[in-house]
Specification:
single chain; 27% helix
């Protein structure tokens, strides 16, 4: 489980994913130091999914804590099979807030080729 060795290709895949999706899909955070490339299916469950771009979603570790709350259901040993849907629902709620902030992102872009 934890401590599962990563592929030597992981840093390149992570970098490509964060370049393609440089914001949190939950709250829209775009601070690079707070963004995480989260595995939808944890690679410790299925090692073949570690480097698959379609198995990644960007979530943040900012004050919204989307990586922990949405990605792991507030429990680091858990994972959310509906993470994409739940992130979209949370983001839609934030977009409707009358605080005047604008969050722009494309959900229809294709993942980069590595």
């Amino acid at each position: 489980m934890f401590g599962t060795p990563r592929s030597g290709k992981w840093p390149k895949v992570r970098k490509a994913h964060l370049k393609f999706q440089p914001w949190c899909m939950g709250c829209g955070c775009s601070n690079p130091s707070q963004l995480e490339a989260h595995h939808i299916i944890p690679f410790w469950i299925d090692k073949t999914q570690e480097l698959i771009l379609d198995n990644l979603i960007t979530l943040c570790s900012s004050k919204s804590r989307c990586h922990f709350v949405i990605g792991h259901l507030s429990n680091w040993v858990s994972w959310n099979v509906n993470v994409k849907k739940d992130a979209a629902i949370y983001f839609a709620k934030l977009e409707k807030k009358p605080d005047g902030r604008q969050i722009i992102r494309s959900r229809n872009a294709s993942p980069p080729k590595i």
